[in-house]
Amino acid sequence: MSTVVAEKGRQASGKGPNPDKVAKVEAMREKMSDISAAVLFDYRGLSVAQMTTLRRRSREAGVELSVMKNNLLHRAVEGTAYESIQDHLKGPVSIATTTGEPSAPAKVLNDFVKEASVGQIAGGVLDGKFLDVGEIKALAELPPREVLLGQIVGLMDSQVAAFPRLLNAVLTKLLYALQAIANQKETG
Predict the structure, then answer these.
(1) What is the pTM (predicted TM-score) of this model?
(2) DSSP per-residue string spanning the chain
């Protein structure tokens, strides 16, 4: 019994890959080289109006929301720092990317899911490491980078301000000790 494999599609007719799809994959691959974070979002259940609202909010936050066929996205991330999302490309998934604040896609999507109660975050990648849903939600709850830096500066400033008081306290105790010794010698 011979097994015959049916050839289909562009390969069967002797044509190469579809140039439009190759261009989409290359454009996404180029975009992936510039981004700081990516979050996958399962958009099942969203109405057109909700998807439009999500896209508008994403743009306002400096996040680009892209919908692309999973097999094309799979090829686009191959060999990049975002390759770890390949195993999570199941069902209708969009990808939210940013070149700015790494937590921005997580914040936009998390806020939208809380408000709209449709769609779900499927995971994401930050610094080449895959983050599950819980980690993405934790990232979304972090204050903005500027606030975190302000908190660090505040902590450092409080330590710097406390240092002169500490030195002053040590000198004051030393002077009291010397004064006590001088008083003791005078009376004794």
Answers:
(1) 0.70
(2) ----PPP-HHHHTT--S-HHHHHHHHHHHHHHHH-SEEEEEE-TT--HHHHHHHHHHHHHTTEEEEE--HHHHHHHHTTSTTGGGGGG--SSEEEEEESS-TTHHHHHHHHHHHHH---EEEEEEETTEEE-HHHHHHHHHSPPHHHHHHHHHHHHHHHHHHHHHHHHHHHHHHHHHHHHHHHHHHH-
